[in-house]
Specification:
Keywords: Coiled coil, Membrane, Transmembrane, Transmembrane helix. The protein has 148 residues and is mainly α. 73% of the residues lie in helices and 8% in strands.
């Protein structure tokens, strides 16, 4: 079955539109403008697939071929691997941050304890000096009283 010139022009326009938008699906609604029956749709679809270097997959639809292969396959796998790696790195960083915060809390607790102990020792030293001063005064007073 041969296509008319007008339909060939419409196909060429579809091809150029497809290449401009860099889309990866062929919309069947576009065929309504240029075809009347199912056999013409099949012919146009095959022409478009050939001209646009498309590959049809049963599960996912139509894909554009590149020098590296089908666009969706490698990029999707690579994106998933990068995403998994980033998630693992993020979890490791969160774990390290939690450990760091815990160590900061422990150090603050130690600082509080040492400060409290230091204040106790300082207070004991001050009290001891006062006791010595009072006892010295009393001993001095007693010695002066017995000497006179």
């Amino acid at each position: 079955m041969k296509l008319t010139e007008s339909r060939k022009l419409i196909i060429i326009k579809l091809i150029s539109k497809f290449k401009e938008n860099d889309a990866y699906t062929i919309e069947i609604t576009e065929f309504n403008k240029c075809v009347n029956n199912i056999s013409e749709v099949k012919i146009i679809t095959e022409i478009l697939k050939y001209e646009l270097e498309l590959m049809t997959s049963i599960s996912k639809g139509t894909y554009k071929l590149t020098n590296k292969g089908i666009i969706f396959s490698f990029d999707d796998i690579e994106d998933k691997q990068i995403k998994n790696k980033l998630e693992l790195d993020n979890l490791k960083l969160q774990k390290e941050a939690a450990e760091y915060q815990q160590s900061i809390r422990n150090k603050e607790y130690e600082i509080r304890n040492l400060t409290r102990d230091n204040l106790r020792l300082g207070n004991w030293d001050i009290r001891f000096r006062w006791y010595i001063a009072v006892i010295s005064f009393i001993i001095g007073f007693i010695i002066k009283y017995f000497i006179n």
